[in-house]
Amino acid sequence: MLALPDRVGKAHTRNSRRTRFWVETRGIVTRVSLVAVICSAVVALAKAPPPPAAKQKEREALSQALVQAIASSPLASSRLSVQVKSLDDGAVVFSRDGEELLNPASNVKLFTAAAALSKLGPEFRFDTEFLTDQDFKQGKTRLLYVRGKGDPTITTERLYAMVGEVVHAGLKEVGDIVVDESYFDAERDPPGFDQESGDRPYLAPTGALSLNWNTVGVYLRPGDSVGAEGVTELEPPSDYFTVDAQLTTGTKMQRRFTVSSTVDRDRVKQKFEVRGVVPVEKGTWAVWKKIDQPGLYFGYTVKQLLKDRGVKVKGRVRAGVVPTTGAKLLSVAQSDTLDIVLKRMNKHSSNFVAEQLIKTLGAEGRGVPGTTAHGIDVVEDFLAQEVGLPRGSYVMKNGSGLNDTNRFSAAQINRLLVVMWERFPTAPEYLSALGIAGKDGTLKYRFEGTDAVGRLRAKTGTLENVSALSGYVQAVGGERFVFSVLVNDFHGRASTVVPSLDTLGAAVAAEGSALGPRGAIAAMTTPSVVGPYEELKSRLKTYAALTQKAEKKNAPFLRTAWRSEKDPAVRAAIADALYQSDPREPANVRIFLDSALAVDDVYGRLRRAALDAKLDVPLISSLVELASGGNGDAIARLLEFVRASAADDAASATLSEHLAVVANDAPAELLWVLRTAPEQDRAAAVDSMVKGLAAMNHVGQPFWDALREAHGSVDPAMAAFAKDLDEVLSQKIAASRAPAVDPTAAATDPAVRPANAAATAPGG
After folding, report:
1. Which of 44, 226, 384, 758 has a 20 to 30 A CA-CA distance from 29?
2. What's residue 491's pLDDT?
3. What pLDDT score was predicted for residue 584?
């Protein structure tokens, strides 16, 4: 129950005095009023804040629970900045290194959103203008200009409607289409984006004219039968793309494909290369890739949509600038208001939207063209003048939080959250843009079964060895808090620490509940229960059948079964079935990877039970499927399985073949995971790869190409690692291919020598 502030209690006192005056002058009517006042007083007492001692006791219990939760989790061995602060009275309830500057990952978007609301206003809209030359007559124009002003929300569907407005304005024939991106500067990649290379969608560049978050969907569809040619389609279709596809149809459990993109030599078009296998009878698979030239992508799509609407386009698409005089405005399209845009940014953690906002702040606050540097300058002005965070007390280089670029502390994030909470004109929009625990956004499948569901709103953050969670929570007891948890330099993948972050948030939400913070933590960390072996075999058959069916309709049932299951092996089998029921759902991927543990209680028991029951060993096919698609967590998990299988010749041989397939399909991702893997996992993987790559011969060429390319990596650690790995693998593979040498003959005949490793190294 919410506690009423002191001013409400004072108001009740004043009302009581007035009521006594009415008693003296109004007779029986006053007796009814007095009863009402007494009832109001009772309600007020019931809602009044608890005595300071009681509140302090609750907070101390929460603080102690958080201390114990951290001490017994992976957070204990990580760099950590945590602070929990009451919104009711401003008291810091808990802090551990709350002032330490750490990498906050996507929690930086909290600062970008706050500055955008403050400087642009929640009603701000982005314009996209369509103009013709001054000789536009009878529906014909020599030049159609499209001038963008940074709208990050234009999709193919919206652009179709925009083009419709242009057509209805009378356009019938066009010469050249000129795309004007002068609202932003020409620098595409903000600081931090240069720390990664590749065509992943989260690396999408900025652009004053942007479409589909500057990504394109590559849709892959199987043929009618196993072995048939697959189908590759791009959305949206346009002449901007060329496609080289070699796609075939595999069995229901085969899914290994790669999609890569490059810009052509003249930097006019973008080429996609598709290779691999898609499973039969499993529908369409979508892969999203970033676009390298947003303006041309936009212009070519406009050209295609105009042609679809019957407009003749005789010329080409090119970059240019709308002349200061002589152009006629034909149509203006406006985006949704900024508060809606912020929902798209924070609920789904869009790096692209964040960086577009930063450049827009630069353009609106410092003048056109908008630059990242000017946008960050506007944010820093806001933080200094309106939040009380002086320049130099933090590091902010981009607006999205991508890579090793920014530094904030938990206390600084909470300071921002408090300020935004207290700003009535923008507080509703700011809060509504955050993910809601157990309901939507990146928190949709987190905190399930806890008091945090619906009570906690927060921004997540995930990078390599970085995880963060910051936001607001109203506890069951009514007290409202801001909290921030930043974790850096932990061992393993993000999945090892995310449950610990959720435990802290659930504990805060449970303050004042019957369970209490300590009980909430205990409920989320209930130890696993290993069930009887015969029962495991029986249940394994049930879930193996569901895995084979791979029907999406089973997903809700399987998710409920997974959540309530205590046997870790059965839980993993359920997760396998859940993933296969809908492998396109990111939450299913996460559940599967968190459950697929290479320990004896899980993988060991499942392997033995599957062999006894004459079933395929669960987890392996799904793990290889994900790893071959470039999922780093799946590759890391696969390396753990390789190590766990070292003593089992049959399992080890199978995993060697699988690892070689991953080396072929996702070589760059495998190298990255190998470099960061624990030594024992890496050593086992190298030995396993020697067997698999030696057998693949030329099929393993993509891995060797990636390995040699990594020799010249801008990251010195990666370059050194690649050279060492190249040497070790080459020597071991050469040794494995060398003919056996009779030790006796070698001792008596000096001509018998080991093979020259360098002469037989593969891929050289």
Report:
1. 44
2. 81
3. 86
SS3 131: strand
What was the pLDDT predicted at 148? 98
Phi, psi angle pair for 540, to nearest 5°: -60, -40
DSSP per-residue string spanning 433-493? TSEETTTSGGGTTSSTTSTTTTTEEEEEEEETTEEEEEEEEE-TTS-EEEEEEEEES-SS-
What lies within 8 Å, CB to CB, of 2 at 6+ separation is 47, 478
Contacts of 620 (CB under 8 A, 6+ apart): 641, 654, 655, 658
Whole-angstrom distance, CA of residue 548 vs CA of residue 602: 20
Angle of CA points 62, 63, 65, to nearest 5°: 65
Q: Which helix (H) or strand (E) holds 86?
A: strand 79-86
| Nearest Cα to Cα of residue 344 among 498, 121, 113, 160 | 113
The amino acid at 652: S
Model confidence pTM above 0.70: yes
| Residue 55 banded pLDDT, cuts 50, 70, 90 | confident
Q: Is 183 in contact with 208 (CB distance < 8 Å)?
A: yes
Q: Are 736 and 696 within 8 A, CB to CB?
A: no
- Round to whole Å and give the CA distance between 297 and 131: 18
The candidate with the shortest Cα–Cα distance to 65, out of 526, 515, 529, 563, is 515
The two structure tokens encoding residue 58: 């609750």
Tally of CB atoms within 10 A around 339: 20
CA–CA gap between residue 430 and residue 347 (Å, rounded): 11
Measure the N-to-C terminal CA separation of the chain; round to a whole number of Å: 71
Q: What is the mean pLDDT of residues 75-82?
A: 96
**608, 609, 613, 615: CA torsion to nearest 10:** -80
d(CA 746, CA 740): 11
Please say if the pLDDT value at position 49 is more than 70. Answer: no
Q: What is the DSSP string of 377-439?
A: HHHHHHIIIII---TTSSB---SS--STT-BB-HHHHHHHHHHHHT-TTTHHHHHHTSEETTT
- The three-class DSSP label of residue 571 is helix
Residue for token pair 């017994």: 72
Tokens linked to 591: 């559940």
Contact 159, 148 (CB under 8 A): no
**Model confidence pLDDT, tens digit, residues 307-321:** 999 999 999 999 999
Are residues 524 and 506 in contact, defined by beta-carbon separation less than 8 angstroms? yes
**Lookup: tokens for 412:** 């600084």
Residue owning tokens 């203008």: 129
> Residue 43 has what pLDDT?
44
Select the more confidently predicted residue: 327 or 694: 327
Nearest to 432 by CA among 309, 556, 565, 339: 339
CA distance readout (Å), 593 to 236, 610, 624, 626, 649: 32, 20, 12, 10, 25
In degrees to the nearest 10, what's the CA dihedral of 83, 86, 91, 93?
-50
Question: Token pair for residue 611?
Answer: 């062999």
**Pairing of the two strands 317-319 and 173-180:** parallel
Instruction: Provide DSSP, 697-708.
Output: GGGGHHHHHHHH
Nearest to 447 by CA among 563, 348, 538: 563
What phi and psi, each to the nearest 5 degrees, are found at residue 456? -115, 130
CA–chain centroid gap for 707, Å, is: 27
What's the half-sphere exposure (Cβ side, CA atoms, 13 Å) at 27? 1
Check whether 453 has a pLDDT greater than 90.
yes
Tell me: the pLDDT tens digits for 599-654? 999 999 999 999 999 999 999 999 998 998 888 889 999 999 999 999 999 999 99
Distance CA 161, CA 166 (A): 9
3-state secondary structure of 91: coil
In whole angstroms, give the CA distance from residue 415 to residue 520.
27
